[in-house]
Amino acid sequence: MRKSKQIQGARRPVRRHLARLSAISLFVMALALAPSQLAVSHIGQQTAATNAAARNAALVAATQEVLKETSDLRQLSIVRAVQSSTQSRTEIERAVVKNLDEDISPADMHAAEVTLKKLGLAPQDFQYRALMTRLLTEQVAGYYEPKTRQFHLADWIDIDGQKPIMAHELTHALQDQHFDLRRFEHWPKGDSDAELAAHALIEGDATLAMVLYVSSNPMRALTFFKSLGAKGVDTKELDQAPRVLRESLLFPYQEGLNWTRELYKQGGWKQVSEAFQTLPQSTEQVMHPEKYFAHEAPVKVTLPDITSLLNSASRSDRRSVPPASADGSLSLQSTQVERATRVTWKRLAYDVNGEWGTYLLLDQFLKSPTESHRAAAGWAGDRYAVYESSTGQVIYVSVSAWDTENDAREFFEAYGKRTELRYLQAQSGNTGANTKSKSQTVMTWETGDGLAVVKLSNSRVVIVEGLPKQISSNQLLKLIP
Predict the structure, then answer these.
(1) For residues 208 and 254, is the Cβ–Cβ distance under 8 A?
(2) Would you state the pLDDT for residue 185?
(3) Do the strands 150-154 and 450-457 form a parallel or antiparallel pair, or are they unpaired?
(4) Distance from the CA of 448 to the CA of which of 76, 107, 198, 420 falls in 20 to 30 A?
(5) What angle do CA 419, 424, 425 make, to 5 degrees?
(6) What 3-state class would DSSP assign to 20?
(7) Where would I find the H helices in 43-88?
(8) Which of 42-51, 95-104, 278-287 has the lowest mean pLDDT?
């Protein structure tokens, strides 16, 4: 798990919702984080210092050993030595929180929360920062930090048993030396899908190297699992996290491993290394490697900013102000009424869901991975935006392009089914849906959260959720290409 930007989490909802969650090694998360079996409160300061010094010395030696073997296995030369040290749980937690706060602004965290809630992907009491802090501090057991070019291992982890994790993290160090990982830290806003695909390369490469490192010596696997400890793996926070966060967090490791393995089959480590120059452009290319090899680039989709339309509609819908007094002036009370009823809108997010995000959107309610994957598989490109009013109302707008008109219709029907399930499930909360109209190309629902519209137009699908009643859906749809 690289640390720096990977723990940025869901800067762009639904994916980076998730995109930058590629911070945690799959094996650290799923296997290697065993609770410490040793109580340390009774250890004297001198003994603790002696033990810490011994552990650091052992880690330095192990780092040199594993780095050399990983370098030979991954076929990337060691450009410079990698500094290493052990860190306490408190130190790791402090580093996680510091990076989370530095890399994700309060506005981005708010946008993630609002979007996930609007789409029914997280409960209404969901708090993004609190969850990510708990989740990441639960999972992190070791990391490579590109900013300082150092590797850190938790001091409660058995060094010999955790050499596979070291192989993973030291692969990141080799990647950094040859391909400069810091160039991925400031990904341009607006394409989290491509960002997630790039992290799938980074983590898939390191995970494949780790797998080959373990398979080169069967005893390593036994030592690795033995080191987990009798209490097993602590994944409480991961298990309880919203599915979209959990699965997007795992995507760079699971799907990234599968994709990198295909590159390795095609041209060995040389092909994997060349991918750092010819990055995957979408999660579609990761999920379908043949599309990467065919250079099938995603369609660039744009959406107009409808903030002015929303604000204009809100002004025209403002409640009438009491008539002026005899001298032609408005009373203070009248002015206060006008101000109190003024509603303003702003755009919180403007991003790409990608095939992976589209699949997660569908399957949250369809609960049929086969059906959801099939409906998302014809994805060619998309763009979505999220708007929030000063009164807390939220609007989600998206346009998706599809490979064929049949692919577009399949998604149109699947999203219509998702919409019915999404609002019917919330009916007890007075946000249930009553189908207003349904045709071959347009479906609309009146809900307690506003109007929901799904429109099919040739090989494109337009979705609007949460449209206020004072805005005509036809007026809005005319603005969307």
Answers:
(1) no
(2) 84
(3) unpaired
(4) 107
(5) 105
(6) strand
(7) 45-74
(8) 42-51
Does residue 467 come out as left (phi exceeding 0), alpha (psi in the -120 to 50 range) or beta? beta
Under 8 Å between Cβ of 62 and 163: yes
Please state, in angstroms and as integers, the Cα–Cα distance from residue 387 to each residue in 111, 115, 345, 390, 392, following that order: 9, 9, 7, 10, 10
Mean pLDDT on 344-365:
97
Residues 6+ apart with CB under 8 A from 277: none
d(CA 186, CA 191): 12
Residue given tokens 């990904």 in the structure block: 187
| Token duo for residue 145 | 């930090």
- Contacting residues for 101 by C-beta, under 8 A, at least 6 apart: none
Sequence-separated (6 or more) residues with CB below 8 Å from residue 396:
115, 118, 119, 384, 385, 386, 463, 464, 465, 466
Tell me if 461 sits within 8 A of 402, measured CB to CB: yes
Average pLDDT, the chain: 83
- In this prediction, residue 341 carries a pLDDT of 64
Q: Sort strands 434-438 and 150-154 into parallel, antiparallel or unpaired.
A: unpaired
Average pLDDT over every residue of 41-49: 38
d(CA 116, CA 317): 28
Structure tokens at 170: 């030291």
Nearest to 289 by CA among 371, 376, 381, 201: 201
The tens digit of pLDDT for each residue in 129-157 reads 888 888 877 777 788 999 899 999 888 87
Residue type, 284: E
For residue 335, the model assigns a pLDDT of: 47
CA distances, 291 to each of 9, 239, 296, 440 (Å): 27, 32, 5, 31
Pairing of strands 83-87, 150-154: parallel
Record the pTM.
0.85
Residue by residue, DSSP assigns 310-352 as HHHHHHHTSPPPPPP-TTSPPPHHHHHHHHHH---EEEEEEE-
| pLDDT for 317 | 57
**Residue 318: per-residue pLDDT:** 54
Map residue 437 onto helix, strand or coil.
strand
Q: How far apart are the two ends of the chain, measured CA to CA in Å?
A: 40
Q: How far apart are CA 412 and CA 375, in angstroms?
A: 9
Strands 442-447 and 450-457 turn out to be antiparallel
142-145/345-351 β-pairing: unpaired
pLDDT of the residue at 45: 36
CB-based burial label for 148 (10 Å; 0-12, 13-18, 19+): exposed
pLDDT at 320 over 80: no
- Residue 228 CA, chain-centre distance (Å), reads 27
